[in-house]
Batch of 2 targets.
Target 1
Amino acid sequence: MRISKIGIRVGGIAMGAYFVWLSWQYFHGKASIGSSMVKLLHSPEMLLLMIGGYSLSFIVKALAWRLYSGRDKEDRLALYIHPLLVSLLVNHVLPLKVGDLARTGLLARSAAIRWDDALHWVAVMRVLDMASLLFIGSVGALLLGLEASPWFIVVVALGVLVLVALYLFERRRRSNQQYQTDRKGIVAFVQRHYIRLQSTLASKRGAAAALLTLVSWLLEGAVVYGVTGVLDLPVNPFEAIWVTSMTIAGQLFHVTPGGIGTYETTLTASLGVLGVSGEVAFAAALLSHGFKFVFAYVTGAASLAMSAVTWKELRSWLQPTGREGHIK
């Protein structure tokens, strides 16, 4: 675990350093990002497309989450939308990607469920997110003739690592027969949730949740498509979706608020693979990330207010000592 954390930090620092170099090379104040912002503000149709597509992506994610939980008949959709937006806000405020803990805590409180059940649902949705990104990245790289793209290789490598980890976990679980009947401690906890994951994903409900998750990421491509459209870049909707998947996959190395640096680096590199010049690609990265920051702050703050979340309560969700009280 410690090695993986060190690897993520080293990768994040490396991307941050490259972001500094990109800023030095391509950032020219008002002549670049300023003019790009003016173009976006003077293109209300593209701005509406970005807001609508990005907002709809979270609604579809919430639908997938509620469907997987099996509580789609009893819970209001808002119970799942607000945790998503609060999680987005936390990830754009704190340097560590701990928004999922706030997401878990808010759902556990709002839906009156056990903390570990809420955490299970959040973890599974993250798995579906990564599977969707891997699928989009792989299909996009093949269709666009980018098999040799370094980002495609990174995504495939990550996918292989996940599959290997799952295989080793399953092999170890089967080899330790004496623990399979144990209903106490962490073994029983892991086994219970693993069985639930296996049975749900193999059902129609699990398949529908996976499909909705994929659709949500297709919709998120509206942000990149809108920005590239404003800047008159030759990027079609499918390419915008592929660039988005590569950029989000790069957020694995999130070590700054909102992934500043890693987001711009991966988006600039992905657009560069499509033939966009570095200066224009960097401006598009800054503009799209700036849009997401504004969206996160506005919608996240609104969700905190509408859910009546106090600062003390939010802090308790982000600290290990504050989670036991949420298990009912």
Target 2
Amino acid sequence: MKIIRTNSDNPDFKKLSALFDEYLVDIDGDERDFFAFYNNVQLDNVLVVYENSEVVGCGAFKKFDENTAEIKRMFVHPNHRNKGIARFVLNELENWANEFGFTSFILETSPKLTSAIALYEKTGYQFIQNYGQYIGVENSVCMKKVK
């Protein structure tokens, strides 16, 4: 696997992000516009993963506060799941964020994304109260990890 550090203007990230948004339409239902507003933002810290020159996964982070990075846009193409790509991306995002001095990580996901939640739990994330724009959103769970 090859991984590149880039930003959200990267065409391969945009391609995967569009696939992710399509996937989320059924999951987010009536709240899809709410989530799209917060997901379709400029991101300066994006990872894109390739396997045999094919784009297979992505993820990003952005500053939440002085010590915390928010993990965003974690997605693995459906044809490439169950290969450890998501864990690889998450680990690389955390390492990259550590280079900026971030020592904790937060994220938001859907309670319906059980495999994603299982990955986060296996890698040390714990459920927290919903933060920021996710407070009071029933179709949302938030998690945190302190390194």
